[in-house]
Design brief:
The complex is a heterodimer. Chain A is mainly alpha-helical. Chain A has 14 helices and two strands, in the order H-H-H-H-H-H-H-H-H-H-E-H-E-H-H-H. In chain B, strands 3, 4, 5, 6, 8, 9, 10, 11 and 13 form a nine-stranded mixed β-sheet that branches. In chain B, strands 1, 2, 7, 12 and 14 form a five-stranded mixed β-sheet that branches. The chains are: A mainly alpha, B mainly beta. At the A-B interface, helix 1, helix 5, helix 6, helix 8 and helix 11 of A face helix 1 and helix 2 of B.
Chain lengths: 349, 261
């Protein structure tokens, strides 16, 4: 009889531990991560306070990023096309690869400084970082999976049940938490430790003569679009690439439906540009030399060609000598952040 | 004796865990809550639409048959005569109405404060300004996905999926029509909110099961503030001209036909 009373007392003690009571120990075990805005960076577009990265949330996001179960074939994870060594691009792959050898139509973009970007993908089809992963996850030619199926697959894995419960107060495996964890991982991927950054922040580095000349040229010839310390004004522009009939990619028009947006693509950041070849939305240009050759004498006119490329003498493009191109490329290489691509926090293994 | 103790214990344990999230501030003044069912009927000329055999004629004299009708209802708010608003929790406030699925046309709401309400407000689609910022809204993704309400190439929702076949006057060949309305990108926002007066007072009480009947006059998708002719545009998907026209029409198609307390 006494024994029974003990049980009753014990049950009382445990029965009422609500989630709120658990909250305190969870925070202790799951400390917030410091999201630091580099001194030479603008304020982030991502509202970090609404999804503050935590140790467990970040760990979960990273695990999901490299998780093949997010794809229908169990293999093609986010990290499959976004490889850290190449600033999270698909090195040498012209267009993205998906399940069962499917080919996408666009080049996988690098992932860095995502917290500072307003819209995502080459045409701005995602207006928030939390939404972006929906596109590659559900696209037939990419990961070809559904959220309902992913949730089911993750629920079967004890390690995920544990991680979700540690990372989120409501402890649930659901699409909201999957997307939030991925964002926590991605917003921490800040690349701000290149030679250029060290010079901009007066940390002791100096440009070589060639790089300094390249920087001056860059400012006058490129920085109207590749603006600011992120090296993009985040606008959509037609930069005079001929239309590849294989894809006939509408560009920004696919999102807005507006004729004026036909064949316009997001101005990409140039950070780590040395590593993220091939270039352009469809990966058609292999080297930085090819890119500058395109800008100096490879452009094709069309109704939506950006006016910035139309010269008063009716020629198209940006005038550059071979020497100037070399100098600009030397400058662009100062945007490579070796610490970022080697940062073990973001590595799969 | 043992049994009794066990029963008491079990009872106390159950009782002691009653969720008290609904108590605002934990004062002694206990607020009571009730439930509400919203019944949606999709009609044309006051008759429930028929996906199998229905043949309808729009204002542009085009006859059409409907194969699929789905739309998203969200952000439900109940308003009292003094203007006080009860906002249903955003995370639980996204619903897919699918004409082909009876259960989807009955929305059950719970934990509504006891009150007399005279107006209802709800949204058509997903409010971009709230999504995905407000907690929980991303959890609508699986439902939308299963029902083909996500744009395949983008990260946004289709608010309306209205498909079928149509004939123009004097023509015997029928063509498909596809009307998809949603927001895409940051520029095109087709989300609409409607505030509608209730024909009689809705009184929410703890033990009752009140019901509000909402009629959606589907003919208004073609003919209302604007006229949409299928011959002019039968395929509306990412359409900055026609999608807003249809979204405006949709915002006029709802009315409350009955309140039962």
């Amino acid at each position: 009889m006494k024994f029974l009373s003990y049980i009753v007392i014990f049950l009382f003690g445990t029965a009422c531990s609500s989630e709120k009571d658990d909250y305190v120990p969870v925070t202790l075990e799951n400390p917030k991560l410091e999201f630091t805005v580099p001194a030479n960076f603008p304020e982030p577009s991502y509202n970090v306070s609404l999804n503050p990265p935590t140790e467990k949330g970040f760990e979960l996001g990273k695990k999901l990023f490299y998780e093949g179960r997010l794809a229908s074939d169990g293999v093609v994870s986010c990290g499959f096309c976004h490889i850290q060594d190449f600033a999270f691009t698909h090195h040498t792959h012209i267009v993205s690869h998906g399940v069962d050898g499917a080919l996408g139509t666009r080049n996988a973009q690098p992932l860095h400084n995502m917290a500072f970007m307003k819209e995502f993908t080459w045409d701005g089809a995602a207006i928030h970082l939390d939404l972006q992963p929906i596109i590659p996850i559900t696209a037939e030619v990419e990961m070809n999976e559904s959220f309902s199926s992913i949730i089911k697959k993750l629920e079967e894995r004890p390690e995920y049940v544990k991680l979700f419960s540690e990372a989120f107060e409501n402890q649930k495996i659901n699409s909201e938490n999957i997307l939030k964890a991925l964002s926590q991982f991605m917003i921490m991927m800040v690349s701000a430790d290149s030679k250029y950054d060290k010079i901009e922040r007066n940390e002791g580095s100096v440009f070589t003569e060639q790089e300094a000349a390249g920087f001056e040229l860059f400012k006058s010839k490129c920085a109207s679009c590749h603006a600011g310390t992120l090296f993009t004004d985040q606008s959509y522009r037609n930069n005079g690439l001929s239309v590849d009939p294989q894809y006939n990619d509408l560009g920004r028009k696919r999102v807005t439906g507006l004729d004026e947006d036909l064949h316009k693509f997001k101005v990409p950041s140039l950070r780590n540009i040395e590593l993220t070849f091939p270039y352009m939305h469809d990966g058609r240009l292999k080297t930085l030399n090819d890119v500058l050759d395109h800008y100096s004498n490879g452009m094709v006119d069309s109704p939506t060609l950006d006016p910035v490329f139309k010269n008063t003498d009716t020629s198209l493009g940006i005038l550059m000598t071979d020497l100037e191109k070399e100098q600009i490329i030397a400058f662009l290489k100062t945007l490579t952040d070796d610490n970022f691509v080697a940062d073990s926090r973001f590595s799969e293994f | 004796m043992k049994k009794i103790i066990l029963i008491i214990a079990a009872f106390l344990i159950v009782l002691s865990c009653k969720n008290d999230d609904n108590n605002n501030g934990g004062s002694d003044n206990i607020e009571k809550f009730g439930t509400l069912t919203l019944d949606f009927s999709n009609t044309i000329e006051d008759k429930t639409i028929d996906l199998e055999r229905g043949s309808y004629t729009n204002g542009s004299n085009e006859t059409y048959a409907i194969a699929e009708l789905k739309y998203i209802i969200s952000n439900i708010v109940l308003i009292t005569s003094t203007g006080e608003e009860f906002k249903y929790p955003v995370a639980d406030s996204y619903f897919l109405i699918n004409e082909a699925e009876e259960s989807s046309k009955e929305i059950s709401l719970t934990d509504i404060p006891e009150e007399e309400y005279t107006k209802i407000r709800f949204g058509f689609g997903v409010d971009q300004s709230k999504y995905p910022i407000e907690s929980g809204t991303a959890n609508f993704i699986p439902t939308a996905e299963e029902n083909g309400m996500l744009w395949a190439w983008a990260a946004g929702y289709k608010f309306l999926k209205f498909e079928g076949t149509y004939n123009t006057i004097g023509s015997t060949t029928s063509n498909d029509f596809i009307l998809h309305v949603g927001s895409h990108g940051a520029n095109l926002d087709n989300y609409k909110e409607m505030t509608i007066n209730l024909p009689s007072v809705l009184s929410i009480k703890e033990m009752t099961t009140p019901n509000v009947s909402i009629n959606a006059d589907i003919a208004k998708i073609f003919d209302s503030i604007n006229t949409h002719s299928l011959e002019v545009k039968s395929d509306v998907q990412v359409d900055p001209v026609n999608a807003p026209i249809i979204a405006e029409n949709v915002s006029t198609m709802f009315s409350i036909t009955n309140v039962s307390n």
